[in-house]
Design brief:
eight-stranded mixed β-sheet, two-stranded antiparallel sheet
Amino acid sequence: MELLERRIRADGEVLPGGILKVDGFLNHQMDPQLLMELGREFHRLFAGEGVNKILTIEASGIGPACFAGLVFGCPVLFAKKNRTRNLSGEFWTSTVFSFTHHVENTILVSKKYLGPGDRVLIVDDFLANGAALDGLITLCEEAGASVAGAGICIEKAFQPGGERIRARGVRVESLARIRSMSDCGEIEFC
Ligand code: 5GP
């Protein structure tokens, strides 16, 4: 999506270790007009899939997921991160290794809000190694919900998550796919 690629080139910052900082418009300060356009694009891509719920993970997926939810006209559910494993039976849980914080989190959603009747679009800000997406897909599987696919704002295609999850049979649509990033800040899109 050209609008997003232009914004990444203009305001994104490449940090050492293959991290792209986009906290001026996506995951700290947010540009609502841009996020609305991303939501519309997710809707264009997944219209007709019968999506009745958007699922994301706290915290930085919540912004784009809410705008997607507005366009789809459906609820937005975010998985919470929890380090205590002592959970009663009211939650679906799975585990996710955080790429940015280097810790393993248990993620959970209430059984009240995800179940076999749901057709889910997973939305997240980044796809890198795919741990977050794997965890969210596992939550849906546990709940018996079906996954229409994943809508990702920025995929770092030089990391293995996208390829692995597509090979698993899940439709993944990324609005900007980065082929490479150099330490001097050059970004090449697929
Ligand atoms: P994964 O689980 O696919 O390795 O990473 C996905 C999660 O890590 C995203 O939800 C995002 O919050 C974070 N993440 C991964 N790579 C980056 C990056 O380059 N920049 C930022 N800001 N977050 C990232």
